[in-house]
Fold each of these.
Amino acid sequence: MNDQYIDDRMVQSLEDRRLFAITTSTEVVKVPGPTDVVLVVGTNPAGHTPPGQGATIITSNRIARKL
């Protein structure tokens, strides 16, 4: 019975956690020629870029226009 109480308390403490969202922004940089560069940047609520949340994609003009 004591284990049940500990498990409930652990679940309740998990439910109280706050989850922060990562906001992404996409920017297309026009480059002369058949390709364009797409920059994808992710920021956390503090305005910082978390590791692994940014990317640079070099793609054709046709695909870049759709983004």
Amino acid sequence: MLKQKQIIMAQNFEDLGFFIEYHVDNKYVGSINVIENDRDCIGYYSRIETIAKEDIKFKNNKIIRKGMIYTSYIYPLCGKKK
């Protein structure tokens, strides 16, 4: 079912890539735009809890320090309707 939704979305909207949201202690820290999807699922089901191996810096001047536990989700970036 999930792949059908992805196909429908890809057909209706211009594909611009993906963005990864980062959360620490269930609080939003920032996001980073990426070209390729590195996970099997999108949205809540793409959730991964990880320990930072290096500092992650965001445009909003927030930082996830090395060794901190964070949760990340990946979502599609959709442009205008085709």
Amino acid sequence: MNDSRLAVASCLEHERLAFELLEVRTRGQYLTRLRPLSSQEREEWDRRERAALARLVDHELEHGCSR
């Protein structure tokens, strides 16, 4: 029973992390449509995207779940 709860929890966490990555990418895309990004803004957006992707990949490697 605990294994099934853990599997559901890890999948929920995977969904949350995937949504976080999508949100970072979408915000950056909308912002670039409004105006050009400064180099500092671009670096910050890139940093946030890399961090969100790293969290998702780490979760997949740790739990072996891909959805």
